[in-house]
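Module 6 notes. Inverse folding takes a fixed backbone as the condition and produces residue identities as the prediction. Think of it as a translation problem where the source language is geometry and the target language is the twenty amino acids. Below is one complete input and output pair. Work through it position by position during the lab.
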């Protein structure tokens, strides 16, 4: 047993052990992302305080994620043309500026729904450009062999922050208001900016750039490549549909906490933290696997669908927290494998654009998905919204897996069916 535990520990954290640059970047992100999740929780609660409307929270999701719809593919082209480290430093500094303004308008009592939506959109623009640059930088930090492990650890870091950030945010909001959360987040950006400044550029994995890539032609080439590759086409298709209908917990959990469970901001923070704790556990489990695979990807999507469906009738906060814990683990298993499959299936010169396509599928449809989830919750409560999310996720994964198996048989490619 001791030998097994040591082996799992060695496999789980191998990217951190082997790559100094990745350790530094990971540490900076550890501080910054906790602040980011405090801000995410505070934004949703601020909108509820200003409006009291489920649809208004859905609209917040629209304004936060519509930049991925508008700029997601553009960001991928830029990421293929420029130095990833400097690019991420610029996007992180822009996001920090948005947090500073959010803190000012909230603490001075001048925050209104239009102001919050504009600032959420500006933060979304920074994130839309940051995401493909950060993913491309991860590849440079660890190289192709350790990429699946680093992607899983990044997911663990991101979702581990969901445990710390929301739990702290619930207490801070109750004690000092939402503005304090924005202040903490603004300061936390200094950690990741310092980490990026201290990376050893000579140790970064060398990648082929495409400095002449143009928006239309460059995007067309990425789309054509993804369409020709069966694995990429199906992964991106499944992620698009499940993200559109299923991944709207940022809208549904605050509504579940406020309207159905009546647990207040502290309870909302704990429910969000439950999802994050599950996602952290799922990421650590995913990191133990040596390779990314369709089987893990589909298993995560199916489990997520079952758990979302199980959440539909729940009226007990403890049971809701337990189901959110499981849903978080399934979510990470699904998304970490999707991310790694896309990156490993991409040539260097197209990696930024294909990451941009993945992020468009994951977050670019979120504005419509957030509004749809808010509308469902207005019509039939969170019960209807969770039921639709669960059934859609299950059906999508089932159809895609069946299609993939049929293609493998027709092409006599038994390796595709792994």
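Target side of the pair, the amino acids:
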């Amino acid at each position: 047993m001791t030998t097994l535990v040591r082996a799992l520990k060695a496999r789980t954290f191998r990217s951190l052990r082997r790559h100094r640059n990745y350790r530094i970047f990971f540490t900076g992100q550890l501080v910054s992302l906790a602040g980011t999740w405090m801000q995410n929780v505070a934004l949703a609660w601020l909108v509820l305080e200003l409006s009291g409307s489920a649809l208004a929270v859905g609209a917040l999701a629209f304004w936060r994620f519509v930049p991925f719809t508008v700029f997601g593919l553009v960001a991928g082209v830029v990421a293929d043309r420029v130095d990833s480290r400097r690019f991420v430093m610029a996007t992180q500094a822009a996001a920090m500026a948005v947090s500073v303004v959010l803190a000012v308008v909230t603490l001075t009592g001048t925050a209104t729904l239009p102001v919050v939506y504009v600032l959420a959109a500006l933060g979304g623009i920074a994130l839309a450009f940051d995401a493909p640059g950060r993913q491309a930088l991860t590849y440079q930090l660890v190289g192709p062999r350790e990429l699946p492990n680093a992607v899983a650890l990044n997911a663990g870091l991101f979702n581990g922050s969901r445990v710390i950030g929301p739990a702290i945010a619930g207490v801070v909001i109750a004690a000092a208001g939402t503005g304090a959360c924005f202040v903490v987040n603004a300061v936390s950006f200094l950690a990741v900016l310092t980490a990026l400044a201290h990376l050893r550029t000579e140790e970064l994995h060398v990648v082929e750039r495409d400095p002449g890539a143009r928006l239309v032609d460059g995007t067309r080439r990425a789309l054509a490549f993804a369409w020709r590759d069966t694995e990429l086409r199906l992964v991106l298709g499944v992620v698009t549909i499940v993200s559109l209908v299923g991944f709207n917990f940022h809208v549904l959990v605050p509504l579940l906490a406020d309207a159905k469970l009546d647990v207040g901001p502290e309870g909302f923070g704990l429910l969000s933290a439950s999802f994050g704790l599950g996602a952290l556990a799922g990421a650590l489990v995913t990191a133990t696997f040596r390779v990314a695979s369709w089987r893990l990807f589909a298993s995560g999507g199916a489990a997520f669908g079952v758990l979302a469906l199980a959440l539909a009738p729940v009226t007990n906060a403890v049971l809701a927290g337990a189901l959110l814990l499981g849903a978080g683990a399934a979510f990470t298993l699904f998304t970490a494998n999707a991310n790694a499959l896309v990156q490993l299936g991409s040539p260097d010169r197209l990696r930024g654009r294909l990451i941009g396509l993945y992020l468009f599928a994951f977050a670019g449809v979120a504005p419509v998905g957030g509004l749809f989830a808010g509308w469902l919750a207005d019509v039939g409560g969170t019960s209807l919204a969770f039921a639709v999310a669960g059934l859609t996720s299950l059906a999508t994964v089932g159809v895609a897996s069946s299609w993939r198996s049929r293609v493998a048989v027709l092409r006599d490619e038994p390796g595709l069916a792994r």
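Reference fact for the lab report: The two ends are 29 Å apart (CA to CA).
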